[in-house]
């Protein structure tokens, strides 16, 4: 009997030992960390965090071991780094996914499918991303106005729209080319006049034998620009939105100098005030080059990028102002004791500081002494570092808008193809129906 009790106690102690050993083993597994290498970028987390979702690729020990590298003792995936940060957050947060706005939605969804996350996340992300930020374009209700509006405003909608856009680009290029050519010496003449107050003014005129030709070409371009602007305004379904659109404001500014110049010449002839007004107005004509942004998605993306990165640009401008004042003061006092110094005051050194910070280095103003050169070298290095700071943010914003534009093109292309298939199906059905009626 005593022997049986001893055996029972030994078995109980063995069971307790096995239980404690198993419990310690579970604790070690739960506390065991795993390294995930995603295209060279290593992430480290606990195995128990991944096994919170056992039906996913990383949560299942069998599936994730297919990507295990024994030599480096890590999992390796040749996938998107920026996407995986949000994939890992899904495990760490207990099932919450955050869509990064700087990553195209199709790429992010592809990563979700690869790592076998909850399929409901895909529909949730599509609903939040596609329905909320993108507004549907408003089109005129009447069929004729709608077709004309598509031709004028959407160059990729049809062959006629592409021809219209190509012709508009040609007219813009002709106008800009003539604006530049009329300043060549063989087509222009420069006169210097002195008025009664001994004020000398330099005037620029087109030679008389070429004046009519330049005026005729300029008038033809203005007629087209005016027709285009008026047609857009008449056909526009939203007049208030049309007036607030920056591209339409640029169109208006591009034709305004022509009419102001005519009025100024008509009423004031060759008075000095008229010449000054015309000189300023001629400068405004250069804004016509921005009309190309209507037909260039790249320029539109660049404009949106600069608008989105305005905060970073302001920050960069503030840093540049601080550095300009700092190094202008430093180089002034470093060169102050030299007789042939070119830095007569701190404001005089502002130009040198800006040119040095941007690493242009014209060389018209430069330090001569040793300490001045040391300040110049530090100024150049500081400029490179300062300008490089906001560049990644601006590039990221540009990539974001570029991907959005690419996705929008795909959607429009798919809609167009679906519409063409629907039309061909209807036409085929209408061709078949008469034969069926004859049989009946």
UniProtKB/TrEMBL annotation:
Alphabetized InterPro entries for the sequence: BTB/POZ_dom, Ion_trans_dom, K_chnl_volt-dep_Kv, K_chnl_volt-dep_Kv1, SKP1/BTB/POZ_sf, T1-type_BTB, VG_K_chnl, Volt_channel_dom_sf
SUPFAM superfamilies: POZ domain, Voltage-gated potassium channels
Keywords: Ion channel, Ion transport, Membrane, Potassium, Potassium channel, Potassium transport, Transmembrane, Transmembrane helix, Transport, Voltage-gated channel
Spans through the membrane: 164-184, 214-235, 314-334, 374-395
Region (Disordered): 414-440
Subcellular location: Membrane
Gene Ontology biological-process entries: action potential; protein homooligomerization
Polar residues composition bias: residue spans: 430-440
Broad class of the protein's primary localization: membrane
Membrane topology (UniProt): Multi-pass membrane protein
Domain BTB: 32-133
Entry keyword Transport: yes
Gene3D superfamilies: 1.10.287.70, Potassium Channel Kv1.1, Chain A, Voltage-gated potassium channels. Chain C
CC annotations in GO: voltage-gated potassium channel complex
Residue ranges with Basic and acidic residues bias: 414-424
GO molecular function: delayed rectifier potassium channel activity
Cleaved signal peptide residues: none
The protein's name in its UniProt record: Potassium voltage-gated channel subfamily A member 10-like
């Amino acid at each position: 009997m005593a022997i049986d009790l001893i055996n029972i106690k030994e078995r109980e102690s063995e069971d307790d030992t096995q239980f404690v050993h198993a419990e310690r083993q579970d604790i070690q597994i739960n506390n065991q960390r795993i390294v995930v290498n995603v295209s060279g970028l290593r992430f480290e987390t606990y195995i128990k965090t991944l096994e919170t979702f056992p039906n996913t690729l990383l949560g299942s020990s069998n599936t994730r071991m297919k990507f295990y590298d024994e030599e480096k003792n890590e999992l390796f995936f040749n996938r998107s780094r920026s996407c995986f940060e949000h994939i890992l957050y899904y495990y760490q947060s207990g099932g919450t996914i955050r869509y990064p706005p700087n990553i195209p939605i199709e790429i992010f969804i592809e990563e979700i499918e690869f790592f076998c996350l909850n399929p409901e996340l895909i529909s949730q992300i599509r609903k939040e991303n596609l329905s909320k930020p993108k507004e549907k374009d408003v089109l005129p209700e009447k069929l004729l106005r709608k077709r004309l509006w598509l031709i004028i405003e959407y160059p990729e909608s049809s062959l006629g729209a592409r021809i219209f856009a190509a012709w508009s680009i040609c007219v813009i290029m002709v106008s800009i080319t003539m604006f530049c050519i009329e300043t060549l010496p063989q087509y222009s003449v420069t006169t210097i006049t002195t008025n009664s107050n001994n004020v000398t003014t330099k005037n620029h005129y087109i030679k008389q034998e070429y004046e009519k030709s330049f005026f005729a070409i300029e008038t033809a371009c203005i007629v087209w620009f005016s027709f285009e602007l008026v047609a857009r305004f008449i056909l526009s379904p939203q007049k208030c939105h049309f007036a607030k659109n920056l591209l339409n404001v640029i169109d208006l500014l591009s034709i305004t100098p022509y009419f102001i110049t005519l009025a100024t010449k008509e009423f004031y002839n060759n008075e000095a005030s008229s010449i000054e007004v015309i000189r300023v107005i001629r400068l405004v004509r250069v804004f016509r080059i921005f009309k190309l942004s209507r037909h260039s998605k790249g320029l539109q993306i660049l404009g949106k990028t600069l608008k989105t990165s305005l905060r970073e640009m302001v920050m960069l401008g503030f840093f540049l102002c601080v550095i300009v004042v700092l190094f202008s003061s430093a180089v002034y006092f470093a060169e102050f004791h030299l007789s042939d110094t070119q830095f007569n005051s701190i404001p005089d050194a502002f130009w040198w500081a800006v040119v040095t910070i941007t690493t242009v280095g014209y060389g018209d103003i430069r330090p001569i002494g040793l300490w001045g050169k040391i300040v110049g070298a530090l100024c150049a290095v500081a400029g490179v570092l300062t300008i490089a700071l906001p560049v990644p943010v601006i590039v990221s914003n540009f990539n974001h808008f570029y991907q959005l534009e690419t996705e929008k093109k795909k959607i429009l292309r798919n809609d167009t193809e679906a519409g063409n298939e629907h039309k061909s199906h209807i036409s085929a059905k209408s061709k078949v129906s008469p034969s069926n009626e004859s049989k009946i």
